[in-house]
Amino acid sequence: MQIPKDDEYFALFENIIKELYHYKEYFRGKTVLCNCDNPRLSSFYRYFLIFFDQLGLKKVICTYRGSCYKTEYTGDDWDGVSTPTDSDGDFRNRVGLDEADIVVTFPPFSLFNEFMAMLMESGKKFIVLGSRLCVPYKDVFPHIMLGEIWAGVHSGEMEFTRPNGNIAIVENMTWYTNLTPDIRKESV
After folding, report:
1. For residue 188, what pLDDT is reported?
2. pTM
3. What's the CA gap between 168 and 4, in Å, rounded?
């Protein structure tokens, strides 16, 4: 499937739970940033709210392009607390990045290279969903070759929700990470 210029896709909860299950040990006491996620629509945000106590999280932060707010959840108010920022919520403004330990999100296809450049420069841990077609990108491939980025557990065809509510099937999807999933540790 060719990705249209309008590249807003929302990851399904079942794909998130299937992958993040393998990283549970990394979340204890950590702050997670979902910096491409509307907290009202994001399956990532919902995942971290549902499993907040089980994962032992400290905080979850959501920001997204087009919003002047940063939403934070610390285990108290299910809706989180939204505070105004000086930004439009775009990940390139780095709202929440300094206080985060791990970034978990699905950036827009068209901005994936830029997103990865920002992540690698920040030195943050991450689990990011993207297309396998991004492997040769200038801000991805060198880091793969240096062993600084690798594939997560699940890849292949995945379903996504579009802003209009339709379901889209996208081939060649994978998780990019710099964390070692439990399944890989068991096989080493």
Report:
1. 38
2. 0.92
3. 11
- Residue 5 is assigned to a structural domain of this protein: no
Is 156 in a helix, a strand, or coil?
A: strand
Residue 96: how many CB atoms within 10 A of its CB? 25
Q: In what order do the strands lie in the sheet with 125-131?
A: 10-11, 150-161, 167-177, 125-131, 102-105, 31-34, 59-62, 69-73, 81-84
Does residue 21 form part of some domain? yes
Q: How far is CA 10 from CA 129, 159, 166, 170, 181, in A?
A: 11, 9, 10, 12, 23
Per the CB < 8 A criterion, the answer to whether 39 and 109 are in contact is no
Question: What does pLDDT average to in each consecutive run of 10 residues of the chain (188 residues)?
Answer: 65 96 97 94 95 97 90 88 89 94 95 96 97 94 96 94 92 96 60
Round to whole Å and give the CA distance between 173 and 171: 6
β-partners of residue 168 are: 160
Output helix, strand, coil percentages for the chain, rounded to the nearest 5. Answer: 30, 30, 40
Q: Is residue 116 part of a domain?
A: yes
* CA torsion through residues 113, 118, 122, 125, sign: negative
In a domain, 35, yes or no: yes
Range of the domain at 134: 10-187
Q: What is the CATH number of the domain that holds 119?
A: 3.40.50
